[in-house]
Amino acid sequence: MAPAMSDWSALPMDLVNLISQGIDTEIDLIRFRSVCCNWRSSSIRKHHLNILPFEFPLFKFRSLFDSIINDNTIPFFCYLSKCSFFLIKPPHEQQQTLIRHRPWLVRIRQYSNGKTQILNPLISYQSPFDSLHSIDFNKLSVIHLGTDFIVHDDSLLYDYMYPEKIVAFTGNEKKPIVLGAFTTTSKPILLKCSNENRNGIPVMTAWFEDICIFKGRPYVVHKTGRTATLGLDDFTFELVAESLVSGGGDIKFLVESDGDLLLVDVYESIGFDLMVNVLRLDEKEMRWVNLMSLGDRVLFLGNGCSFSASASDLCVSKGNCVIFIDDAILNFNFENILYGNCIFDLVEGRVSPLCDCPEYFNLFWPPPDWIVKRS
């Protein structure tokens, strides 16, 4: 007689909570919470970085810097949504067949109330996939590529200033800390916010281009390429790289790739094609060094989040290219071709609209047949 199947939903909730506290990766927690509705509602989300509902302070548009340093100013608090980028691949048994199943690169938005929504990563405004209602991560091969945070749509107030980019990390006390980057103000600043201090603390007032998390610490790049990291003890900045010669290009992106911190330096000029240089941080020499090739890697650069993946994981023929998504770059060349979502080939030194490169464009749209049939 075959043994009876265990009813995992009948586990005591105290035990479910205890198990969930030991999970420290995004994918594993999603899979844990998708076992059944009891596990989803009972697992303690507040123990996990970047998952708990988080309030972020907003200040009036005209006096953002003065509002922050003025203790009498009461900010408006908004909730943040978490957007995660995943590369979803077929189950392993399907990957072993002779039929090639392309993966799907998708963005999933998680609201503070636990609701989730599947979005198109190529579009800056919210564009849900209405035909897909659920994805069972327990039955698929999933790679977590990156995460960003955005303000809830229902929190938007037009007389308030909103951060261009938000990142989250843990300090030495292992408590979540959120940094919001405001780069279009007269005095660009970073706002530090945690559950213990919700008012926000300005931690940097120099002009900067991008911010990212590398090895668990925030890194900020100046428009000249000068780069610093934020100390986790006193929240002061420590220089890690000097400026580029002549300051480099017009737009800079920071992105982690295969254990290295890269700087993507973009030269843009209306009427001409984009030019892109990729540099690697030499931590010992405290400088950026030119990177001649990305090898198998593909860089994805967006307004809120940048990440990388291998060409083999993406199931594309080659890497060594940079893909701009989320309308991170908007430029017209001399042929009046708009480069919004585009791809730059580092070997050929040429930029093309992403829609002209179906092998890469199809990573985002349309959803592959194998996942549509499963939803």
Your description of this structure?
It is a single chain. With 375 residues, this protein is mainly beta. It folds into two domains: 13-47, no CATH class; 55-374, no CATH class. The protein is 13% helix and 38% strand. It has eight helices and 25 strands. It has helices at 13-21, 26-33, 37-42, 64-69, 92-95, 311-314, 358-361, 369-374, and strands spanning 55-60, 76-89, 104-110, 116-119, 141-151, 160-161, 165-170, 176-182, 189-194, 201-204, 208-214, 217-222, 227-230, 237-241, 251-257, 260-267, 275-282, 287-290, 297-301, 307-310, 321-324, 331-332, 338-339, 342-345, 350-353. The strands form six sheets. Strands 1, 2, 3, 4, 5 and 6 form a six-stranded antiparallel sheet that branches. It has a five-stranded mixed sheet with strand order 20-19-21-24-25. The longest helix is centred in the N-terminal third of the chain and has 9 residues, at 13-21. The radius of gyration is 22 Å and the shape is globular. The model has no long low-confidence stretch (mean pLDDT 77).
Portion in strands: 35-45%
Number of strands: 25
Mean pLDDT: 77
Strand pairing plus helix content: what structural class? mainly beta
Largest sheet entry: 6 strands, antiparallel
Shape: globular
Question: What is the number of independent domains?
Answer: 2
- Report how far apart the termini are: 35 Å
How many individual helices? 8
Radius of gyration: 22 Å
- Helix percentage range: 10-25%
Query: Low-confidence runs (pLDDT<50, min 5 residues)?
Result: none
